[in-house]
Structure formats: C-alpha cells, structure tokens
C-alpha cells in the first residue's frame, strides 16, 4: 500500500497481499497460551474468517490456525499494511468529516513503531492495550472512517466494527466498548481464552 487513499479502501482481497509474517526488526508481544479446546479453536477461526469472503477461507484458515497455535492469537499478519505507519498531516486523510480524519490520524500514531509497544500485534501500551484485535479490523475501521459523515456514528465492540449508524452532528462520532467481562470471568486464564477467541480485548 503506497498511499492513504489505498489504505482506506477496505480489506485488500483481490489479490490477497503476500504474507511476509512477523517483522524481525520490531518487538513482538509475548506468546500467549490460551489452552483452547478443538471446538474453541474452530470458533476462533470462524470469528476471524467472518471478515472475509468464503472463496478466501481455505487459504486464510490454515495460516490463521497456525498463528493461533504459534502465538495464541490471530493477528492476521498478512494484512499488516506496508505503508509507513505514522501520523500523517490531517489534510492527507481521505474523509468526509475532519473528526474522522482526526481519528485516523490518532489510530496511525498509536501504531507507529516509535510509539507502539508491539506494533505488529497492534499493542500500543501495557502489554495488552491494543488499538484493534487484528489487522482486518484496522482496515475496516479506516474504510468506515473515510466514508463517515457528520450524521453517522461508528460503533465498535472490543475492536470489532459493528458499522456506521445514523446519528446527529451533535452525537459522538464513535462509540467504543472493550472487555465487557464480569468479575467472575475476569481471571487471567479466562481473559487469555476470550482474547484468543477474538471476542474480548
């Protein structure tokens, strides 16, 4: 991806980008050990593949399963953008409202390797503080933001973009919720499992 307009055009699907794997030149998040059952692994794969058309599932399922077993989470390294990740001048972002451009700028600043703790795992701080759960969510949100008007609100749940919904110019441009786990299920073991399934972050 050579420019911001291309970056904001949605998931790159035809053709799929090459899978370069993990960049050895940046720090990476610790390997997680969620100890999923076989059925939970299948659920994690279904949750990851929902972002992609069925004709790509055979290719992506195998590599996503490998990521899950090797790193304890599906980050979708194949979809890590090749554009230099940094905060570009706000006027360079393709958008219909400056509020959306401001969000795109902040997202890319948080994923700048000079800022992020583990940039390829989308972790900006604290070992767990992710901007998104995977790179598909990044692409979809950047696309939604490029299309957003001042009469729409982006709704997100633990990194997953639910979509753009009608709202008012005085409404928030984004509503975000993370975690949503009650105390009885907030142990480290439970968190690792839900994080691996792609349902919490």
Automatic annotation (TrEMBL):
Sorted alphabetically, which Pfam families does this protein's record hold?
A: Urocanase_N
Sequence ranges assigned to domain Urocanase N-terminal in this UniProt record: 85-201
Q: Where are the transmembrane segments?
A: none
Q: Which residues form a coiled coil?
A: none
Q: What is this protein called?
A: Urocanate hydratase
- Identify the species of origin: Ilyodon furcidens
